Amino acid sequence: MKLPERWQDGVAKEGRAFSDFFEVPDGDAAREHLLMNLRLAEGIDLAAYELRWSVRPDAQKIAALAEEGLLSQTGEVLRATPKGRIVLNAVIANLLN
């Protein structure tokens, strides 16, 4: 839906502008949560992530990536470093596999 007017009309008429909805499995949503938050300067709060998804990225993988200078962790907050952001897709793939 590229025209804002069509979107606005759909919301006014139906309370929403999208016709198709689908449920995202928790595993996929957790992966997306990690991926999107590591793209932010704020990073990801690992305690909140674990509380929400009942899973946590592997501490040994985080430590190895931090040793390479790709991630930094302060308390429960995990962030990609400037060096890590350059290769963020590989960093995330490493964390998730």
Strand percentage lies at 5-15%
The CATH class label is Mainly Alpha
Q: Largest sheet, order of strands side by side?
A: 1-3-2
For the sheet with most strands, the description reads:
3 strands, antiparallel
How many helix segments? 6
Class computed from helices, strands and strand pairing: mainly alpha
- Average pLDDT confidence is 90
Which H/E pattern describes the elements? Answer: HHEHHEEHH
Description:
The chain is mostly helical and 97 residues long. It has a single domain (24-96), classed as Arc Repressor Mutant, subunit A, CATH 1.10.10. Helix content is 57%, strand content 10%. The protein contains six helices and three strands; from the N terminus they run H-H-E-H-H-E-E-H-H. The chain has helices at 4-14, 26-38, 46-53, 59-67, 82-86, 88-96; strands spanning 44-45, 71-74, 77-80. The protein has a three-stranded antiparallel beta sheet. Strand 2 and strand 3 form a beta hairpin. The longest helix is centred in the N-terminal third of the chain and has 13 residues, at 26-38. The protein is elongated, with a radius of gyration of 18 Å. The relative contact order is 0.13. The mean pLDDT is 90.
